[in-house]
Amino acid sequence: MAGSKKQYQFSFGPWNISMGADPFGPPVRKEVAFAAKIREYKKLGFDGVQFHDDDIISTEVGPLELPKAVAKVKKMLDGEGLFPEIVAPRLWEHPRTIDGGYTSNSAADRKYALDRTRRTIDIANQIGCKNIVLWLAREGTYIREAKCPLTATQRLLDAINMMLEYDKNILILGEMKPNEPMDMAYMPTPGHFLALCYKTVDPSRSGVLIESAHSILAGLDPSDDMAYALWHKKLWSVHLNDQNGLKYDQDKSFGSVDLRRAFNTVWVLERAGYQGCVGLDVKAMRTTKQADQTRHLANSREIFLKVLDVVRSVDDKVVESFRAERDYEGLELYIMKKLMGK
Ligand code: GLO
Ligand code: MG
Description:
Strand content: 5-15%
Distance between the termini: 21 Å
Number of helices: 12
Bound molecules: D-glucose, magnesium ion
Largest sheet: 8 strands, parallel
Structural class: alpha/beta
Shape: globular
CATH class: Alpha Beta
Helix content: 40-55%
CATH architecture: Alpha-Beta Barrel
């Protein structure tokens, strides 16, 4: 959109500064204390913090001590001039969620998931955040016969309705991913979740967060997934990153694999007047040294802003004339030259 000069706000989660462990090897960098991570945000040009419930307070903290513990973190954010962008129940680490949370076959485990979600909403309220993100990590199966998929769909809808009724101010943002940790997820794509949004008790408070790597893992183009959700007015946050083909979830720096895909992503967000934060769910390489452990965040932000410059230099009239002539060879070269700075 020529002339538009929207200022984007950037966010990431404390988990994006990591110790470099992978399934084949232990940590390779020292742990960074939570408070020290919070002090990195502004230095790196970020304003928003993405949280899991237990990033804010440990699950051990009882309901009576909860307000005081949350207030401590809120004070930390206020002191740094940061805002909490999202809070997500971390429903994939606890022994009670081995077989999923909301879709578990065990009634006791489903109760744990719902109780923990209500607690997450309480935490979000106290820290001043209305965006509740649901990454449905273990809501799927390793073998398809393990659970009833019809029951699972209903249970997911019931869980979301419970949240919307529990607090009339929150927004639910589903973050869909087709696989990993499970072999197959029940809601593999944003499109699946969007269909569910319209069946909830409050579709106006039900939407999505889309992560680039998750779309790529589903064989979809992130910019098309985002455009589709934007058209529905339901793209309320993004996790921009990159992914080298169909393998484990890589969370590479934004644009580092496919710059043209990054261009199309930014182009769509910019043209649609996307209002949410630019979340960067990126991971440092295992080889990264301790001193460089936040470089992937700064780099991803810088790449986004550089790609934004390219997007803003695109002349809509030129694009339209190529389209009108059905000259897509010409249009392709025009875009490629923009990307090459020629
Ligand atoms: C994993 C997800 C994960 C979520 C985060 C917030 O693949 O991308 O990092 O974004 O836990 O719910
Ligand atoms: Mg993510």
